């Protein structure tokens, strides 16, 4: 049996990972095909049908502007996924590069980079996100940058330690002795060895990134209205909690399902490629 | 222990400086003029200039930096740009609310999470383990504010058991607890999820150690193996777990305060952001950052206290 087939079998047998992958895929498809799935335009207001409870025609009810909650939640998936994935990608590229370079260079560079990483990582994600957004101001691009900044130090740290170990291996010494440039040694020899771990953590941290996005949107520091975002929908529903709780309630379910599926996927894949039992968060 | 304590405390000072410098720079690199932000886009040039002068924004950066540090040293955080009251006293008036909220979240979350983590590890792959794992995975996927809303809907709006908003009068214990319960429960549940999961995996790691096998091989009764060998060695990882997630919980406390409209540092920070009160914002960042450095210090000291090896490292 080929290596790929063996991995696929293990993956299929790991129920958590498989379920996580299926749900994640569904959320991604919903986001991509939002215009086809959503029964209404998420921005269409209808003053005659405000605050309708869930019913036929409005599956999840309507909000205070008479906008269809179901359609808004479907479109909300777009912001969450774009912000979650892009910010993690930025953090992954910047952080992993910094971690590898720090480990390969050693000395002062390593010291400086890793100390800055320590300081940045000692902050809670949310406080960090709030601070950066307070300074940058709201908007999708800024949100991605802010969460990317939160993610980068984490990637730097997980890339740093294994690179230190790899650096001492004979094949790296051999590559260097052959006169290959530092960059080539890093990208051809060091990077492939840590890529698996980086990708697994990337999946898990996408869940974290989506949660941070929801938090910031809830406070009103994310993508500005009228663009529907899950956190934003919940915030708008807060004023109607006592008589139209569905507005906030269902949007939260969407966040929960998405974050959970990314967590399950990442967890399961890690169990497969790293059968040791240690779990980080 | 004495020399370790001194060394570790001394080490915290440069870290604190680095963090304070970071906060200072963050606020200074913000695009846009804080004075314009505070006064609005239509303010006259003279008014903006006067405010800049008053805020000390016209001085060179290094002078501003030293003034910032000198102010902190004297406990003078400046005055709010919105209501001109001293920031320090405003922070002092809400700080107890944040303190009682996060401490009770940390304590109850750990008291529930640690035994649950141990239990699920010892009963690995049994029913209680599955239930515990599902709950903790759900707990670390749910955003704090949403969990708060769910509790609010259930306990306050449906059953009318607890107040919807506010913080209560701190001098009245009954009222304090009445207002504290739901927000603290929110944080405790989140803390519990993190702690259960991490405690479970560290116990599982220890159960795989050679000395546990040896203890069992020599015929030691199981509860003695668990008590003397497993739990004792789990103390250190458990401590670090609690320390680590106490910091995470500070972040969640911000959201909890917003959802429950509870007075506190987090709510004040969000308010300062919306009103563009840079002085207030900077001060709250300083407080949060110092708290983080402080909790890290306490965790490290607790390490040294529980494990003599660390003291001599």
What is this entry, summarized?
With 281 residues, chain A is mainly α. Chain A has helices at 3-13, 15-32, 34-37, 69-105, 107-121, 125-136, 140-167, 170-177, 182-219, 230-237, 246-273. Residues 277-281 of chain A have low confidence and may be disordered.
Explain what this protein looks like in three dimensions.
Chain A is built from eleven helices and no strands. With 281 residues, chain A is mostly helical. The longest helix of chain A is centred in the last third of the chain and has 38 residues, at 182-219. Chain A is elongated. Helix content of chain B is 80%, strand content 0%. Chain B is built from 13 helices and no strands. Chain B has helices at 2-29, 34-39, 45-55, 61-74, 87-122, 127-141, 144-158, 173-207, 210-217, 222-259, 265-274, 278-306, 308-311. In chain B, helix 8 crosses helix 10 (222-259). Chain B starts with a helix and ends with a helix. The interface between A and B is large, with 44 and 54 residues.
Distance between the termini of chain B: 12 Å
Q: Number of helical runs of chain B?
A: 13
Count the E strands of chain A.
0
What's the quaternary structure here?
Answer: heterodimer
**Unreliable stretches of chain B:** none
Strand content of chain B: under 5%
Strand content of chain A: under 5%
What fraction, in percent, of the residue positions of chain B are helical? over 70%
Q: From N to C, what is the helix and strand string of chain A?
A: HHHHHHHHHHH
Counting helices, strands and paired strands, the structural category of chain A is mainly alpha
- Describe the main β-sheet of chain B briefly: none
Shape of chain B: globular
Summed up, the helix count of chain A is 11
Largest sheet of chain A: none
C-alpha-based Rg of chain B, rounded: 24 Å
Order of helices and strands of chain B: HHHHHHHHHHHHH
